[in-house]
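Record type: monomer structure entry
Structure origin: computed from sequence
Chain ID: A
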Amino acid sequence: MTQEELDALMNGGFDEVEEEVEALDEPEESSLDELLEESEDLESGFMADEEIKKTDADDRPKPLGYSDETAHHWPLPATDENKMVHQLDNVTKESEEKASQIFDIIEGVSNELMEKENSINSIIDVLQGNIELFTNLNKKFPDVKAFSVGLEKNKTALDDANASIEVLQSSGEAIMSVMDIMQYQDIHRQKIERVINVMRALSNYLNNLFEGRIDDSKRVASAQHIVGDTHNELASNEDIEALLAQFSK
């Protein structure tokens, strides 16, 4: 080290060294900004991934002129939820299952009504015996008020029991009518199945009608412009070269 460098170090070099040390200890503002930008990019990328996950996989670009007002004019995409035969198969299957559950419930209610009707018939037999007994006692002991009161109570109970029997019988008849009406559900299922069979037959017929011997991947591409077309979309040089290359094969 020369004398001039030593003098410079003694006169003010220590301040410069301290500034350099402080600069090394303090982080640069540019590096902090870069870290913030990277964190924001990661966060935005994470949010974008979440949005992509929420997007329906079957979401396709809508055709030209499609809107909520004209949605009924456009056919729905051919997904499992919109395939006609697939939907009809689900309808027949679900309707048959629900009809079977309804029949089971109706049968259970009908059996309970029959049991209650048998129980009330037993009660009616007891009430008729009581009425006959109180009638004889009232004739032999007309002055005993308890016999006449018991006779009237049993007659009233017998009338109520007979009314309950009528209600149970009418309810049973109504349930039988419901079961008869539910038979039409099976007829409707058969009609839907017949429609399905016709649709499948037509689909197979059309597939056989339009079937070709050449695989679609091996077919020549369709020309974009033919003499006599009304539009002005001409084939490009690349299209012509590709078409000639296919013919050369």
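Annotation 1: Residues 12-56 form one domain.
Annotation 2: The two ends are 83 Å apart (CA to CA).
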